[in-house]
């Protein structure tokens, strides 16, 4: 197809006097943009602020509204809006200081969204302009995410989809594929800023790519598509985004005339008069009906529901289910508060679950009267329950009672297990994802019980072709992300402590019954768990495949180089390159690892690992981009291992780790990073010390080599020792690779471990090292006990 024209320049023909008017409006709007830039840049405290943190009526909000009104009142509204949008886009991508700060990006995208409200061509023109821009602009993740979340960039535009499909080239352009997987994972799956309907074209293109790579179950494209299908099944709606989408629009509403603010508010149509009373009466009748154990009466009742038009699959059906859940939840809450009524508190909740079961079971007998299927019927029931739960949680806050919703979801899960087992588990997983603790914190305990229930968790993890693994992985990541701020800051109120204990028990069950699941998703789990949660991480890293027999790490003279498993790479389903793919670091890193990069890359490496703004630093609790460090470390090592395998060289050992570009990268990081960054980098390495495999072998050799080569950097050796020993002083289990590496470090005289000053920096530290050494080395001291065993262990440790 021919290339569309660029957005029209200001001053083009638009009827009598239109061009002159558009030019005048453009000049005034540009003055607003320049004034906003001046306001931000002259106030250092604003550089790292966000639009959502500013008060209503702030100068920046007034400038957005002023430009909006100029465009809205112009006779050449569309032309003026498009011309100003072009100016904004150029400023967004010009690389200036305004476009590099968070507030600048948010102000520009909020301005584009505001202008788009009054000049409808803006969104189309901006999308077309980006679709035909160079790759630096098309694949700029931060800017693209901002434009998508503000609803300015139309991902379903035919021009955009066509050009992006060409760019991905059926998966042959891997950086482009990684970019769109990262974009949709962020905006569609994580933030819910858009729905699947907003990106159908891109999802279809990725589906074709997935079909071409069907033999690669670890492909992140496939996982994204599975998550998208889950969102589509659950009817997930877009969530208003904080910052630009929510607070900025509130600021604009505060600055705008009252009628303008009210015009954008869409109100849900009220229920028809008497509908709630009718539904409530029907539910009470249904309770009496099922207590009578009259099957004929049950079928007659369902026929009456059909005759009343409540189950056709239309808007009335949605209202019927919503009112039913509201009535049952309210009645249950009231009765639970009355000690004399607690014995019958769940009668209506159980009856509603029974109604859904009967409707599903006998669907074939009445499906001519409805557009519903068994699956869509269940989806409606679950989606309605989640929506009512959200509403109750928002309205009642700390007075929210999770018990009615827990009981309803539990009864539905148990009642429908036999009626539709395969489809049901995925619908339940989607529903639980929609009411995860980050969204409905008051439902956290009930949520964890449902997620780990014997009728759900094992069925998901036993699903054919591991399809349920993606869904359960998403649920576990949601749990970890909710607890992360509390655990990172050691802010653990009693409810969080209980939730943490419950999480540990779930992980113990997974470690015992589904260790492969933990093995293959260990990377993303460790990404979501803060470094301080050593016990939690050890549980995950201690998992090993059930068919594997672990060699005893305490065996004297154990030579891991000779183990047959040590040359095999582990299966990793986590998209461990995702953070790296979204960073400008990736192209330069690839060049360097292939031997074509300059040494200047190493000197700038540390800067790439820092978070760009103080706001992100405050949110993450560190100056460093921890997921990027984890991704960089594993990607660099995987490249070295694959290169060694391709050339027939060693996959591990001293020769493989003491030379080559991969080791240069790791050595440079270890030497140049500050204490905080080095600790995160060493943790990323220790996270790969697991069961016998090529990654464990390589990273064990890397740690030992870094320890040995740090001749002038004592702090490096001390931090390496800290990372290892803090994982050993907690309760079992301990990862196999961790034990093997630490035993080699303290036994092998090459590393001269016991003569370093930090080992004896204080009496308490020295006793700690001796205690760990006894644990590691007296395990194989020939059965010696007491003082004799301890003496043998310490002698072996000191070489």
List the helices and strands and how they pair.
Layout lengths: L17 H24 L2 H4 L11 H14 L4 H16 L4 H4 L1 H17 L2 H11 L3 H4 L2 H9 L8 H11 L5 H17 L9 H13 L7 H15 L9 H12 L2 H6 L11 H17 L3 H13 L7 H22 L10 H15 L1 H4 L7 H23 L6 H13 L5 H14 L9 H8 L5 H5 L5 H22 L5 H20 L1 H6 L1 H7 L5 H8 L36 H4 L3 H9 L6 H9 L5 H7 L5 H21 L6 H5 L3 H12 L2 H12 L7 H16 L4 H12 L10 H12 L15 H15 L8 H12 L2
Helix pairs in contact: 1-3, 1-4, 1-6, 3-6, 3-14, 4-6, 4-7, 6-14, 7-10, 9-11, 11-13, 12-13, 13-23, 13-26, 16-18, 16-19, 18-19, 18-21, 19-21, 19-22, 21-23, 23-26, 35-37, 35-38, 37-38, 38-40, 39-41, 42-43
Can you tell me about this structure?
This protein is mostly helical and 799 residues long. Helix content is 65%, strand content 0%. It has 43 helices and no strands. The radius of gyration is 30 Å and the shape is globular. 42% of the residues are buried. Mean pLDDT is 81; it is low at 1-17, 240-267 and 780-799.
Proportion of residues in helical segments: 55-70%
Radius of gyration: 30 Å
Q: In percent, how much strand structure appears in the residues?
A: under 5%
Class from helix and strand fractions: mainly alpha
Total helices: the number is 43
Shape label: globular
Termini gap: 74 Å
